[in-house]
Design goal:
With 235 residues, this protein is an alpha+beta fold. It is 54% helix and 7% strand. The chain has two domains: 74 residues, Glutaredoxin (3-Layer(aba) Sandwich), CATH 3.40.30; 131 residues, Glutathione S-transferase Yfyf (Class Pi), Chain A, domain 2. A four-stranded mixed beta sheet has the order 2-1-3-4, covered by helices on one side. Helix 1 packs parallel to helix 3 and helix 4 packs parallel to helix 6. It catalyses: RX + glutathione = an S-substituted glutathione + a halide anion + H(+).
Length: 235
């Protein structure tokens, strides 16, 4: 079991506006772990440290603990729970079944939900409409899980009374979700159709730890969308 790290022992390679980096911010803050943040850049060449630490995907976030790199945001969050399990809150359920359910829905966020929102961000016309509809369908599945799944129904967060793995997986994307809604002039989380998910999002975003680390990428997202969908300039 790891002890509380000093900044020299725990480093985080990341980009401030990345929703995946935000997940790690939240997990580290909840556990009260001191760390050194090393800023990477979207448009600049990748640093030698990043390429050395994550030679497979060559992307952030990367957590470096005692010189050893851990890659991929949700793997990092689970590592934080296992390495600093003696520090509250618990980010993973103790029950094996509930732990499996948490991993399932965290994977759903990355494998289904995020790609559909990304497609909406970059889509136009019929492609945009299709991607928005797919995103809404995915959010409705989460709404249904909040309503019927005994692991979540009637609880404050997906993790129960405390923020857990799914809260971090989905909540880390909350600013990105709002940014996509604004940039595409669409509604992805309708409070009338998704009252439980909408209420959860409001609660999550009001948590002090979350407010302290959550960026506002709306302007960046709008600019990025404008650049991606603009026709190429003729020579």
């Amino acid at each position: 079991m790891a002890t509380e790290g000093e900044k020299g022992q725990v480093k985080l390679l990341g980009v401030t506006l990345s929703p995946f980096v935000v997940r790690v911010y939240i997990a580290l803050a909840l556990k009260g772990i001191d760390y050194e943040f090393i800023q990477e850049h979207f448009l600049h060449p990748k640093s030698e440290l990043l390429l050395k630490s994550n030679p497979v995907h060559k992307k952030v976030p990367v957590l470096i603990h005692n010189g050893k790199p851990i890659c991929e945001s949700m793997i990092i969050v689970q590592y934080i729970e296992e390495a600093w399990g003696n520090k509250g809150p618990n980010l993973m359920p103790k029950d094996p079944y509930e732990r499996a359910i948490a991993r399932f829905w965290a994977a759903f966020v990355d494998d289904k939900l995020f790609p559909s929102m990304q497609a909406a961000l970059l889509g136009q016309g019929g492609q945009l409409q299709k991607a928005v509809e797919e995103s809404v369908t995915n959010f409705l599945l989460i709404e249904e899980a909040l309503r019927t799944n005994h692991c979540f129904a009637g609880k404050v967060y997906f993790g129960g009374d405390e923020i857990g793995l799914i809260d971090i997986a989905l909540g880390g994307l909350s600013a990105f979700i709002k940014g996509v809604e604004k940039a595409t002039e669409s509604v992805l989380i309708d409070p009338e159709k998704m009252p439980l998910l909408s209420a959860w999002m409001d609660r999550f975003c009001k948590i002090d730890v979350v407010k302290e680390v959550m960026p506002d990428p709306a302007e960046y997202i709008s600019v990025r969308r404008a650049r991606m969908i603009s026709p190429p300039t003729a020579n």
